Amino acid sequence: MATPWKLCVRKSILCAAALTLAPAVATAQGIILTGVGPVNRAMAGASTAAPIDAAGALRWNIASISGLQSSEVTFGAELLLPTEDLSSSVPGLSGSTRGEPGAGLIPEVALVHHLANSPWTFGLGMFGIAGFKTNYPASATNPITLPQPNGLGMLFSELEALEVVPAISYALTPKLSIGFAPSLAIARLSLNPLFLSSPDNANGDASFTYPPGFGSRYHYGGGAQLGLYYIANESWRFGASIKSPLWFEDFRYFSQDELGQPRTERMDFDLPMIVSLGTSYSGIDRLLWALDVRYFDYKNTNGFRDTGFGPTGAVRGLGWGNTFSVSNGLQYEVNDALTLRMGYTFQRNPISSTNTFFNVASPLILEHLLSVGGSMHLTENLLFNLVYIHAFNARSSGPIHTPGIGPVPGTSVTSELSADALGMGFTLRY
Questions:
Q1: What pLDDT, in 10s, does the model give residues 374-385?
Q2: CA-wise closest residue to 338 among 388, 280, 281, 386
Q3: In order of start, what are the domains of the chain with their CATH numbers?
């Protein structure tokens, strides 16, 4: 029979890895990507007051689509490769596991159309906005990933979230525009084991285990957004936008207990409200500077606000705090054929050290991201866009928690994360 200490450690390890939310992974503001498409990503997402492409304008400030120089359609894709490590220790045992999440693909398509001799501008965008993936093998030395029932065993998590934005902007004056759009979204979340549900002991061996969480589909959500875009003079522009939370239907899973009998589990998970403020300056010939500041309301969002174990042993949530990011982007027109861009984002880590344990499968802890890219005219109206992004290594450590007790002295769990991404696409102006 297992000793109380072994049972305590066993429960702690089985519950750890909680909540693998989200692919976008490493180049994200928490769970949210810093931008969409190769142009916007090269500017570190700074576009609230700098509408230089359809995708970035539709994503961060729909009112700014009135400020695009011409109508255009843009499309692209990004390959994102995270590097993940998970280590843990309990008295007498410690180890580390390298994950193998592989590269994820993030799509982007956007269209903006100006009506001739009209204050109305219309847009339609579809792009990946959030996500994450972890894939850790079982281990004989790492307490977190020991084979069940003594540990978690193999840990897999994946979230894909796509948004469709049909937008409209109206120029109230030549300098001031207002925009509105509903936000339609689909998302799929796989979690194995499914820590957000209660463990079961259907086989009667006194070892409670969590069910698998692969049996799910794409789920639907929606929200709305408003934006303002103001041209102060030939050099300065300002913008502001607010995005409501994206409210999703309950995520539902067809799972099974230890005996293979059916279980149906549900999870309430949304994406947070986002407030963006931005400015841009173009008073130097061929140079554009853009600055965006964003606030993310994770603390009041389902799936993020709660943390710890519920009375049945299910993990209640990620326990994220509200956070912000600051993005700077520079664009320089080398000549009529070539434009270069670079950007830097600082984002405050929303996961406290205390909650590292509950986020080992969602270690979205990155704080510093650098991007470089550019556009080349293939013809007068057709551009090829390219971007490379590096998210610098981040590390978070905290104690292992036990149901009914809390942090266990002498234990620790550590997540490390970095990422690289390469994106490309085309823009056709008309």
A1: 999 999 999 999
A2: 386
A3: 4-429 (2.40.160.60)
